[in-house]
Specification:
By secondary structure, this protein is an alpha+beta fold. The relative contact order is 0.25. Helix 1 packs across helix 2. It contains two helices and six strands; from the N terminus they run βαβββββα. It has a single domain, classed as Hotdog Thioesterase (Thiol Ester Dehydrase, Chain A, Roll). The protein is 22% helix and 38% strand. It is globular, with a radius of gyration of 16 Å.
C-alpha cells in the first residue's frame, strides 16, 4: 500500500534522531536486515519518549506499554550510511497515543513505522494526564 505523501516528507516530523548503521546488521544481500531496522525505529522511539517526559518535567510515574507496531519497508537500507529517523504524534486518545515515524537514508524515505502506546495501571488502561496530553500536542504531526 502506498503511504500518504506527508509520511515521506522529513519536514513533517517534529523530532529527529540520527543513528549509525552497523556492519553486523548487514545480511548476505549487503543491505541492513529487517530486524535491525525494527531496532533502529525502537531506539529512535525511545529517545522521542525520553524527550516527551523530559518536556513534561517532574510528574507521577506512568506505565506506557506498546499495543501495536507496524513497519512498512519502502526501500533498501545500506551500511555504512547514517539513518535519520523522524518521529511525531499522529493521534492522542483517552488512554493511548500513536507515534508515526519515517526512516530516511541519503534524503530518501526508506520506511515508515506506526506504534500505538497505551497508558496502563494494574487494572488496565488509564487516562493520559492533562499535562502529558499538552506535551503530546506539541509534537502533533500535521497530516496534510
Amino acid at each position: 500500500m502506498k503511504p500518504d505523501p506527508w509520511r515521506l516528507d522529513r519536514a513533517a516530523y517534529p523530532f529527529a534522531f540520527q543513528i549509525q548503521t552497523r556492519y553486523r546488521d548487514e545480511d548476505s544481500l549487503r543491505h541492513i536486515n529487517n530486524m535491525a531496522i525494527a531496532g533502529f525505529y525502537d531506539e529512535a522511539r525511545g529517545r522521542f519518549m525520553k524527550q516527551i517526559f523530559e518536556d513534561l518535567g517532574p510528574a507521577p510515574w506512568v506505565r506506557i506499554v506498546t499495543a501495536d507496531t507496524r513497519v512498512s519497508f519502502l526501500g533498501e537500507v545500506y551500511h555504512p550510511d547514517m539513518l535519520d529517523i523522524g518521529s511525531g504524534i499522529t493521534r492522542i486518545g483517552n488512554a493511548s497515543m500513536e507515534i508515526s515515524q519515517a526512516m530516511f537514508q541519503k534524503g530518501k524515505c526508506v520506511g515508515i513505522c506506526m506504534t500505538t502506546f497505551v497508558q496502563a495501571d494494574e487494572k488496565g488502561s488509564s487516562p493520559l494526564s492533562e499535562g502529558l496530553r499538552a506535551i503530546l500536542q506539541t509534537y502533533l504531526i500535521s497530516q496534510s
